[in-house]
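Listing S7. Sequence submitted for prediction.
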Amino acid sequence: MAVAASVLAAASCGGSSSNSGTTTLNWFIFNEPSGGVQEAAKKCSAASHGAYNIKFQYLPSQADAQREQLVRRLGAKDSSLDLLGLDVVWTGEFANAGWAEPVPQDVQAAVTKNVFPSVLKTAQFENKLYAVPIWSNTQLLWYRKDRVPHAPKTWAEMLQMAEKLGPAKGQIQVQANKYEGLVVWANAMITSAGTSFLAGPSKIALDERKTELALKTMGQFATSNVAPPNIDTSTEDTARLGFESGTSAFMINYPFVYPSAKSNAPDVFKQIAAAKYPQVDPNLPSKPPLGGINIAVSAYSKHKAKDFEAIKCLIQPQNQLAIAKAGGLPPVRSDVYDDPSLNKTVYPGFADLIKSSIQSAGARPSESPAYQDLSLAIQAGLHPTTGIDPKNPKATYDTLKSRVQDAIDRKGLL
């Protein structure tokens, strides 16, 4: 009770409507620094002609802290929450708990038009739509075109190229710290090998042969001399810095690294090129990671009809394009990529690559209502990746499978 009371007291969101009759819609989301999201909200508020005004209630920048605040407030049935900015992996948990309002049938056509099926799946739970995608994200293979003649097609080829260059110039940058980034990497490797963590909200998949191929590949790289010395604490930012330092020929990372290299390492920037996420099995297409944000309506909101009207406006193609231009956040609608400015200024020469990567992405198992438990289990089962023996991947497989099963069964992982 004390926690619930403190959460409600801390809300400090004011009333739900102003004296003029305009309804205030509180949007709980992290402070996306580019300003593109804020500008979209401002335009939608103005376009409502006084029906509503979207007010930001900023969550912490770290995803785990964002989720914790939302869970506490929703657990207290806090009616000050209207719009929820959800990481793509939270849908199952929030829907299963009854915290996210199902998207009404008469709204669905407007908010799902031309949305990539891979992205739309992250907004569903038990084949029902509980959230609306507003932006996506994916990882590409970034490489030095002055050091290798072409982009490698597979992880095995990339490792071979890197070892030929040696650790001074051929390091491969990834994200392998004990955090969500490791789950992203592992999921991409396992789905690219032709299997997945789950075969439904509460049923394990992890085909043994295919999973062991993914684990063997991870172990071969992590224990090689072209893995960065900090691999077991590596993140998106350490990978970026490692690539910008000039010691690396390859990097798996999000598109934010492109403008970063332009600003911070112009000599490296001149040689940077992008390619599709490498294959694990040479006979199967790769399944790049999928990230992004979906908007849900709180089940405890007192303004649900206006919440969904606001969402319909926020996800309009012109707003998705503006958000991409401001912060480099990839649109979720396929038709937005037809705008030539994306390939000219936002993603110079690689807009189609981002589009195809999102189309073929392998999403993390967001359908699981126990995703938080599952994520922790995967991290515990794989970290440190330098401990994965490429000659005996079955040992890691057995540990990983056991931990994932415990997470599904919710055996005390939180």
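Caption to Listing S7: primary sequence and predicted structure tokens for the chain studied. The CA atoms of residues 16 and 24 lie 5 Å apart. The chain has a mean pLDDT of 94.
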